[in-house]
Predict the 3D structure of the following.
Amino acid sequence: MQTLLYRTKGDKTIWAIVILLALFSLLVVYSSTGSLAYKHSKSTESYLFKQIMFIAVGMMVVYFLHKVNYKMYSQVARLAFIISVPLLIYTLFFGVRLNEGSRWIKLPIIQMTIQTSDLAKLALFMYISRLLSKKQDVIKDFKKGFLPLIIPVGIVCLLIAPANLSTALLIGATSLLLMFIGRISVKHLALVIAVAAIPVVMLVMAAVIKHNDNGAETVAVKKEKGSSLFVRVDTWISRVDNFIYGGKDVDDEKTFHVNQMKIAISNGGWVGLGPGNSTQRNFMPHPYSDSVYATIIEEYGLLGGVSVLAIYLLFLFRCIRIFKKCPYAFGAFLALALSFTLVIQALANMAVNVNLMPVTGVTLPLVSMGGSSFIFTCIAIGIILSVARNVEQAEGVPQPVEANV
C-alpha cells in the first residue's frame, strides 16, 4: 500500500475528488436502481457490483494513464481524431438506435456498447490542444490559425448533432471557450457564435409556432421511422416547447420527467430524506443517470446538492491551477480542455435536473451509473493527472522516500 502511494503522483486534491465521487456513486446507484432491477428481474446488488467493477477498472485506467508522459498524447492526438471521424459516420448510419437516435456501437467479443461521441470528444480536445500549442505565432490569422481549429470542431459537432444535439452543443461551447483562452481572435469566435445561433433561434421559433398551433404539424421535418438522419428534430422542438411553456399539470405526459424531478427536489428540503429513502426514484426516468442529481437532492437535501456542485468547482479550480503552472502550452491546454468538458457536462446535468435547461441526455461524470462514459471520464482524468505529475516534476516537488519492505 505504501509503495502504491509512493508511485501515485499528480494533484492529490484531484485524486481525492475522484475517489470521493466514485465512492459516492456507489450509494446513489445502489439507492436508485430498484425500478431498473425490477424491470429486468435482477437484484439491486447486481447493479452495485457492476458499478464496483466499473470503478475498479476506471481507477486502474486513471493510474496507468497518469504514469504516461502527457507529451505522448500529443503524438496520438491526430491519429485518434482521424479514427473518430469514420466511427461517428458509421454510428450515424449503422449504430445501435435508441429513442430515435443512433449514438452507440457494439464492440465485438465483449458485446459492450460505447458512445462514439465520448471517444470523438476526447480525441478532439487532444487534437485542438495540440494545434493551439503549435499555432500561437499565427493564432490571430484567419487561414493559418483559426480555420485549422474550427474545421475539426465543426466536423465533430455536425456528425454528433443529429443523434445527440446536447452533446454537440456542449462540445462546441467548450471548444470556443478553449479557443478564447488560446488567444483566437474574438471577431472570429463571434462569427462562429452568430452562425451557430441561427439554427438555435430557428429551433426556438419552431417550438413557439408549434405551441401556438396547439401541436399541429407545422414543422417541415416530421418523424418517420428510420427515413431521415434528422428524425430527432421534432424531439428537439418538443423539448424546447416543454421547457418554455411547461405542462398543464403534474401528470402531463410531455413534462412528466421534469415534474418528477421537481417533486424529488421539493421532497429533499434542506437536509434530504436520507440515503436510500428516495420515493421519486420509482417514478423518475433514469434516476441513476440523467436524473441522478435530483435523486441526490431528494436523499441528501439542498446541502448535499450544493456540496456536489462545490466538489466539481474545486476540481475545475485545481485544473486551472495546473494550467497556470504547466511550462508547456500543450499540457496546459490539454488539462484545461478536459477539465472544462467534464465540469460543463456536470453543470449541464445539474441545470437540467433543476429545470434551468431543456431535458438532455447528459450524465453526471463519475456519479451516474457506470458505462463507457464512466471509462472515458476516467481516461480524461488520467490525462489531467499526467499533466499534473509532470508539473510537479518540473517544479521539483519533493517526493516521499520509498520504504524498504
In short: The radius of gyration is 22 Å. The chain is about 65% helix and 5% strand. The beta strands are 96-98, 101-106, 113-115. Residues 203 and 236 are 8 Å apart (CA to CA).
